[in-house]
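Inputs:
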Amino acid sequence: MALDKSPEDARPYIERAAPKHPALIDSEHVTADLFNIINVPTMIWIDEQGRIVRPNDVQFGTDTFVALTGRPSEPFLAAVRAWVREGTGGLAPDEIRAHQVLPTREQQAARAEFTLAWHLHRAGRREAAERHFRRAGELAPRDWTIRRGSMPIRGIDPMGSEEFLALWQEGAPRYPAAPLPGASKGPGAG
Amino acid sequence: MASRTLTLIDDGRPLTVEAVVQGDAIHLSPAALEQALGWELKPQGLCRGETCVPVRDRAALVHQDGIDLGTLARLLDRPLAAEAAEGVAVLGAAASDRAQRLAAMDAPDFTLPDLQGRLHSLRDQRGKKTLLIAWASW
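Outputs:
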């Protein structure tokens, strides 16, 4: 699902990829709230029974940004293929718990502020919206679905603006994800 | 104070309720509390179905012109974001609720549209392995 402000922002990417799987639009960040997603791309493995077998992890399906992220896609894609074909790579419950990040009160307060800001923005109350977008970012400074994800809504370039460069200096948020099966600890495993 | 219409977004669900707004304070009508949010004020506390939350300071919660939304949010341990002057309030999900569900490792269900506006739910994928990918153009 695309955590984009509108289907139109996500459309070119979806149409180019023409996926066979559902490609959904999550403008309200419903899934960020439910799964405590704090950055993109975030991957979560769910088994046939609807159980989480690998918690939130920042991983990449392509090498477009590998120079910036230092995280090649191949170990991840190999792990996904092995999971699909052989059922390997899922984690035991205690391993999942050890690597899960659970939401805090501040995080949930930030999400409420984000929802309010979005509503005010849509109602044309831009100044009030801006105040609440900022408040959301203050409450959850390591949540880029809020701090970077709100930039396009607020008319700020999420790639080249000063605001983005300042955010980039802080370092992209990641989860304490478990190493991929077969991967040694090192770049891409943390 | 005259009551006005308030948009109350309850865990993502927009509701229209009657409320009295004074400064930053939002007082909901008891009907809004009961019909829109499903909570009822009883002698033993705030109740919804079998669940009751004790109310120690009833005066902080119950005012002459309604139920104080800020006190209600604190009692339920839920985040409240509000712009009272614009008549909008958001009652978010409690961190404890979200954390409990994630720690239980059952993937919470959701329903979202695709580019054509067709709705899909996570539960539709039951019986298949699902790689959930959160991405964005930004």
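Remarks. Confidence is low (pLDDT under 50) at residues 185-190 of chain A. The longest strand of chain A covers residues 52-58.
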